[in-house]
Structure formats: C-alpha cells, structure tokens
Design brief:
Layout: H1 16-27, H2 37-64, H3 72-81, H4 85-113, H5 119-139
Helix pairs in contact: 2-3, 3-4
C-alpha cells in the first residue's frame, strides 16, 4: 500500500531533523550505536506508510458512521482493526497530552485579550520592551 494508491504524491514525508532528534534520544541509551542516513530515510518512509494506512482505515470508519471528521475513537478503532491494539493506550495518552498542551496555549493566547489593555497600550509596551532589549544589546557583554 503506497501513498500513490490514495491519490498522494511522493512529496509525503516527515521532517528529517525531527526524526533524527527522536532517533538520537532513543540511541542515547545505547552508546556506540549509530543510525545511517539511509536507515533514517527508510524509517521515515515506513512512518509515512504507517500513518497513511491508519488514516485511510480511520477515514473508512468515519465515513461508515456518516461522519465528516476523523476523531480519536476512529484512530482507536483503526489501530485495533489493523492489528495494532498494543499501540492504542499510548496513542490515547499522547492525544490527551496534546489536548492539554492546546488548552495551555489557548490560555496564553487569551491572556493578551484578557489583560484589559487597549491595542495601543499593548503596542506601546511592546515598543518599550524592544527599546530596552536594544539598549542592553548595544551595551555589549557585561564584564
């Protein structure tokens, strides 16, 4: 099963830097073990294929339920139906962590709106911070 079967292109990929960082974090527990670029590229291709497979199955499940949006429960069912039940718990935990992170970001974004300050006052404060940072930068290193 390839992305071409789903009407995609060969442009589907994952960021190499991100995958390399994940590999490095895993390999730090195995000193002396290296990961070649070819192995990394193969891993990326496998990950893309896995994501495509799960996405396709989850989409089928959602369509059968007359849903237009793929939800977490569709991913859960897709993993189970495709024979990956051992991944479900970890996937659901990651989804919960992601949801919590989004809530935290929303609170930070709303902080500006809830400050009670006008846009002009916020802009003035920002300019003052820029001036202060520029002045500190222009002073050079503190000896």
């Amino acid at each position: 099963m390839s992305d071409k079967e789903f009407g995609g292109t060969d442009d589907l990929s994952l960021p190499k830097a991100t995958v390399s960082k994940i590999i490095t974090e895993i390999l730090q527990h195995s000193p002396g073990v290296a990961f070649t670029k070819d192995a990394r590229d193969l891993l990326i291709a496998c990950c893309v294929e896995f994501i495509t497979l799960i996405s396709f199955q989850a989409n089928e499940i959602a369509e059968n339920e007359s849903k237009k949006t793929i939800a977490t429960e569709h991913i859960d069912r897709a993993l189970r139906e495709l024979g990956f039940p051992e991944y479900v718990q970890e996937v659901l935990a990651s989804a919960g962590e992601h949801k919590d992170a989004l809530k935290s970001r929303e609170k930070k974004a709303n902080k500006v709106g809830q400050s009670g300050l006008s846009d002009a006052e916020l802009a003035r404060q920002q300019e003052e911070l820029f001036r202060s940072a520029t002045a500190k930068f222009n002073q050079g290193p503190v000896a």
